[in-house]
């Protein structure tokens, strides 16, 4: 059984199932989902709790079995948490989890926590066994487009709301810009506003005064902004990555990979292949498909080939091979390459 996070509260109000599998990379959502399951398990009589963290290939899985089979003197039930930070239980662990799912212990609620899983793990026999036997909760990050609504919902939980109209939209957009990629910080800023202001309406000035700039970015967000032609956000993320100590070499590599992939997809589409087939042949799957489709629609094959040549020149600069026609500093050179691409992606999609 699969659940969305917004369905969890209603589900738990009807009682706990014997098994929950929570997977995702957002720490705040992981924590809140696990806390809700723990609270419901306690209400159901699970007064004892055992926590196991699977680290390395030599984890003793028999200890999990032992805890599941033993009952305390006074408790009517037990909560067992199995945390697998690497997302891979190993061969022995996979076999054990399949057996465990087939014979769930009585009076025990089991909570298994995993990071974001790739398609291989999601289709593995051990994960499918767990999902079939219990409840699977996938925690996807809140993307930039949905972040203002998420913030408004969190404010409403504390009796706060932004003003109607343009000012309210600007306030939420400002808030989202400041906390993008850092939901835990967003949660903390909402709590701070609830302490500073009584329930009621917040002005744009209230939010601008209180909310710090705690945005955190990654290369995926940067490339997403780049391919849709969002100049301001793309350059802001690049500056943020630089200030956080991200390597120019690493950023250039992921951009070059996207350029090569986009060129392959565009050439395939130009040759008459449908977009889904072109993406599949280029080995593009999951969330990356949207970015590569945008790239292929906005850039011609000739433009992408020119960008690939520029990327090779930029690579030399970043690795210390100076060129008189390029900036000497790695991030300055990377920004020049980015600006060349943005000049294309901001235009009408290539035909």
Low-confidence segments, given as residue ranges, are: none
Specify the CATH architecture of the largest domain: 3-Layer(aba) Sandwich
Oligomeric state of the chains present here: single chain
What's the CATH H-level homologous superfamily of the largest domain?
Answer: P-loop containing nucleotide triphosphate hydrolases
Instruction: Give the SSE order as H and E letters.
Output: EHEHEHEHEHHEHEHHEHHHHHHHH
Mean residue pLDDT = 86
Q: Strands across the major sheet, in which order?
A: 1-6-2-5-4-3
**Number of domain modules:** 3
**Highest-level CATH class of the largest domain:** Alpha Beta
Proportion of residues in helical segments: 55-70%
What's the number of helices? 17
Main beta sheet: strand number and arrangement?
A: 6 strands, parallel
Strand content: 5-15%
Supply the helix-strand structural class.
alpha/beta
Walk me through the structure.
With 351 residues, the protein is an alpha/beta fold. The protein has three domains: 137 residues, Rossmann fold (3-Layer(aba) Sandwich); 67 residues, Orthogonal Bundle (Helicase, Ruva Protein, domain 3), CATH 1.10.8.60; 127 residues, Zinc Finger, Delta Prime, domain 3 (Up-down Bundle), CATH 1.20.272.10. The chain is built from 17 helices and eight strands. The strands form two sheets. The chain has a six-stranded parallel beta sheet, with helices on both faces. Helix 4 runs parallel beside helix 6. The radius of gyration is 24 Å and the shape is globular. The mean pLDDT is 86.
């Amino acid at each position: 059984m699969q659940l969305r996070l917004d369905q969890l509260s209603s589900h738990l109000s009807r009682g706990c199932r014997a098994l929950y599998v929570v997977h995702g990379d957002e720490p705040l959502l992981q924590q809140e989902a696990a806390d809700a399951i723990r609270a419901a398990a306690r209400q159901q009589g699970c007064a004892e709790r055992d926590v196991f963290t699977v680290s390395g290939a030599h984890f003793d899985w028999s200890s999990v079995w032992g805890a599941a089979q033993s009952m305390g003197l006074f408790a009517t039930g037990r909560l067992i948490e199995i945390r697998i930070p690497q997302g891979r239980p190993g061969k022995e662990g996979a076999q054990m989890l399949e057996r465990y799912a087939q014979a769930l212990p009585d009076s025990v609620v089991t909570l298994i926590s995993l990071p974001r899983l790739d398609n291989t793990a999601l289709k593995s026999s051990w994960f499918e066994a767990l999902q079939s036997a219990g409840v699977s909760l996938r925690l996807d990050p809140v993307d930039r487009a949905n972040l203002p609504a998420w913030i408004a919902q969190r404010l409403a939980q504390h009796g706060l709301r932004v003003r109607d109209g343009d000012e309210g939209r600007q306030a939420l957009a400002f808030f989202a810009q400041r906390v993008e990629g850092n939901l835990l910080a967003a949660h903390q800023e909402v709590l701070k506003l609830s302490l500073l202001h009584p329930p009621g309406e917040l002005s744009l000035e209230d939010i601008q005064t209180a909310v710090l700039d705690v945005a955190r970015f990654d290369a995926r967000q940067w490339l997403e902004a780049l391919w849709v032609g969002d100049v301001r956000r793309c350059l802001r993320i690049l500056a943020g990555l630089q200030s956080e100590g991200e390597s120019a070499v690493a950023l250039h590599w992921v951009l070059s990979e996207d350029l090569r992939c986009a060129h392959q997809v565009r050439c395939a589409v130009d040759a008459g292949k449908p977009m889904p087939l072109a993406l599949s042949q280029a080995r593009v799957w999951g969330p990356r498909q949207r970015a590569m489709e945008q790239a292929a629609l906005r850039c011609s094959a000739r433009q992408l080939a020119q960008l690939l040549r520029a990327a090779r020149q930029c690579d030399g600069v970043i690795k210390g091979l100076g060129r008189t026609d390029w900036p000497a500093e790695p991030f300055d050179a990377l920004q020049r390459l980015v600006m060349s691409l943005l000049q294309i992606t901001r235009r009408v999609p290539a035909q």
